[in-house]
Amino acid sequence: MALTGLEIYKSLPKTNCKQCGLPTCLAFAMKVAAGQAGLDQCPPLDPKARAALEEASAPPQQLVKIGAGERAIELGQETSLYRHEGKFQHPTAIAICVNDSLASTAIEERGRQIASLKFERLGATLKVDMAAVFNVSGQPRGFVEAARAASRASRKALALVSANVESLRAAGEALREERPLLWLMDAAAAGAKAFDMAKELGLPICLQAPGFDALVASSEAARAAGLKEFMLAPGPMKAKAALEFLSQSRRAAIVKKFRPMGYPIAMLATGGDSAQTLVEACWYVLKYAALVVVDTTRPEEILGILTSRQDIYTDPQKPALVDSTLHTVGNPGTDAPVLVTTNFALSYYSVESEVEASRVPSFILPVDTEGQSVLTAWAADKFNGKIIAKALKESGVESRVGHRKVVIPGYVAVISASLNEESGWEVLVGPKEASGLVPYLKSQWKP
Q1: Which CATH number, 1.10.3720.10, 3.20.20.20, 3.40.50.12780, 3.40.50.2000, labels domain 63-312?
Q2: pLDDT of 33
Q3: Helices (H), 287-414
Q4: CA separation for the pair 421, 119 (Å, rounded)
Q5: How far apart are CA 153 and CA 102, in angstroms?
Q6: 84: pLDDT confidence band, cut at 50, 70 and 90?
Q7: What is the model's pTM?
Q8: How far, in Å, CA of 229 to CA of 192, rounded?
Q9: 422-439 core/surface letters (b: 16 or more CB in 10 A; e: else)
Q10: How far is CA 265 from CA 77, 193, 235, 251, 282, in A?
Q11: CA 213 to chain centre
């Protein structure tokens, strides 16, 4: 819960000793409240007061770290209920099921499939984050071997899912250096035994219990046992109940500052009709889940989930941009077309994908419009003849083509005359939508 400067000041020594580098304790308190200074900068602060302030000013949701090295991911520590209030901090982790009852060769093949799920979209690489190994066999030994095989083949962080504390202990010990998430499917039954295991191994744990009240009880028990880094999971739920739970738990943590629910939420989207399961997985991503487990490796389904994640975990105050430099598609020669668009990522990549589909080597110049789309930038007078002419000159494209023809989006045909006057280039009006570029480049473009 965020504290005001005056609330922090009440716990400070009030000696104005200046050891923090500021002239007064009140000035220091204001800096701490604004997140511009830390309590460690006040040496005279009483340890008990420091602990109380740290607890009161902690983020409403706990940060949980899973995996090690290149596989490491961070979940939680969110501070906003609505995306327009501020950027969501840590993207939802997507995990794919691996059952330990499968043959070792099948487990390794599943792992390789998980590793291969990578996609390029809007200049970013989208990929699966984790393999969730389920202890279907109920046996610790088979669970350990399956986890090792899945880790080796997928090269991803692991979630080890079991209702058996001994199975989790065995797998956790075997892969301790990889820092897996221990997912306990029956937290109420395991109780203190599971908490002791998590503390002993020093690994994050996910506590699964059926519904809000049961999870509150499990969370309070874990907190009382001294656990700090854990997640909560409601287990299998109908879609409507799941969405209600996600909204309720997020509001409890962020708005009500209800500490027992101030932990990342993990959701299962693993049963029933595949199409419905895919939709539910996307819903969970959009409705605050920190980890979503799915049981599919079909690229078209995984891409849909990852696209939903990419869309929601962008900064709403900062548009997605591409570099405003000359880009090439294929190996364009001196007779290649020159197309201009804006540096709004969605506009640019829409153009680029269609140019690639046309198989016509081309130059694309995304003009700096501060991340605005074509019509928005034109309306704001940031995509006009003078600006485009300057971009053409600074890009160096003149020295790379043997013609002076530039293709502009059809929606801004009105700037043709001014661009011709400012640049001296012949202005060709292209299609209004990027989807029209394939037939345009194949049949209408002539250098």
Answers
A1: 3.20.20.20
A2: 80
A3: 299-312, 345-358, 374-379, 385-395
A4: 42
A5: 14
A6: confident
A7: 0.79
A8: 15
A9: bbebebbebbeebeebbe
A10: 11, 22, 10, 13, 15
A11: 29
